[in-house]
Amino acid sequence: MTRPAVRNGSRTSADRLARLLNLVPYLLARPGIEIAEAAGDLGVTERQLREDLELLWVCGLPGYGPGDLIDMAFDGDRVTITYDAGIDRPLRLTPDEALALVVALRMIAETPGVANREAVERALAKIEDAGDLVGAPVAVRLPGDTPRVEALRAAVEGGKALRITYYTAARDETTERVIDPLRMLMVGGRAYVEAWCRRAEAVRLFRADRIDAITELDEPATVPPQAVPHDLTEGVFRPSVDLPLITLRIGRGERWITEYYPCERVEADGDQWLVSLRVTDLGWARRFVLGLGPEATVVAPVELAEQVRATAAAALDAYAVPTPISAPRPVADPEGVPSGDPAVAGRTQ
Fold it and tell me: Which secondary-structure segment (H or E) carries 122?
């Protein structure tokens, strides 16, 4: 999938927030500035600047009434801030606000690949010092925080090459690779290291919880010029037409897969659903289907249905092999002599 080119001036929420925070003091210092000149100074188009100004109309103080919102006056193509809603005054945080900000910043600092940790830690130090929160008993740990993630983060920050033992779920195999880390990422609540894989000679994503062993090498990470990070704005898995398409008929108990996996088609078929989705390969799809309950049936492709049938039959055959049954042990009679003993039989005749 080809993403459209971004216009001059990023449209992401984070970039726009930063731009809006800078816009008000910029305009306060330049009353009556032409919109074209301001757009040039701020590095955005005139259209983007006008959209930002329209958003400022509804920004301001809690209450959000006529006397609480930022106000502006326009004179042709010139703009002047007439009410700044107190944005020119130093920010005063309450203890609760400062603590909430400390927790949020610590979470950002612990999230791989989200921000510059040094900048976040400097901001933390300033807020903790200003709010008398130095040494506050606040510990933030994300679900993906493990010694393995810490080792990967240290290798990325130290610029070291790594030898890893990695389990590839799609092929159900474990391999040893030497990688040159590019960055750490947190996607869907899971930590990844993105790196140049010398074995594949390409950029690869490695899930931290599937790395069984890590060895830091005595050599710097060497990333070739052609190594380009992946665009992960739409997630790690990017379905494409060149990947196998499978179709399953599922019952109510298996409908969760339509929320967990990107599906190309979901349609009702009586009490069941027909679901089509792309997979990395049929080997992964075979293991995926075998892990589902009895309410899942492969509709297409025929090759996948045959693989699932053969694997299930082999598993059933393994259970069908009869277990040798040993002869029953003799039972002792009241005198303590096994009832099957010939001597006993002779005495009782």
Answer: helix 117-130
